[in-house]
Design goal:
It is built from five helices and five strands. The chain has helices at about 15-25, 35-45, 60-70, 85, 100-110; strands at about 5-10, 25-30, 50-55, 75, 90-95. This is CTP synthetase.
């Protein structure tokens, strides 16, 4: 087991948030396609620190992720708003037009907060 936090990234990551999180020391597991309970389990959601969703069409995966890991931080990084039924479950919803991926990754990990 490693001390490195894990982020499960679901959806197309065209803005590179997964890569920016990796640059901040986060292990990345990706879900390609539908965000199902099985896909979340295979990606390691039970041990994940973050669940990053870039496709709001797959928002039904958010409550499933929280059920499997109540401590996981839910982050949506998409220009479209979340459906009402999951909007209150997400911890952070960011529009890529407002904050770039590097800034979001630094804020999530605290990577830019303090000197060594």
């Amino acid at each position: 087991m490693t001390d490195q936090p894990l982020a499960v990234v679901a959806g197309p990551d065209e803005h590179g948030l997964g890569e920016e999180l990796a640059a901040c020391g986060v292990a990345i597991s990706r879900i390609e396609g539908l965000v199902t309970a099985d896909a979340l389990a295979e990606a390691g959601i039970a041990d994940a620190a973050y669940f990053v969703l870039t496709d709001v069409e797959e928002a039904t995966g958010i409550p499933v992720a929280k059920e499997r890991n109540p401590e996981v931080q839910i982050v949506t990084y998409a220009s479209r708003s979340l459906p009402e039924f999951v909007a209150t479950v997400a911890d952070l919803a960011v529009d890529p037009e407002l904050l770039d991926a590097a800034t979001v990754a630094e804020e999530l990990t605290g990577d830019g907060e303090a000197d060594q």
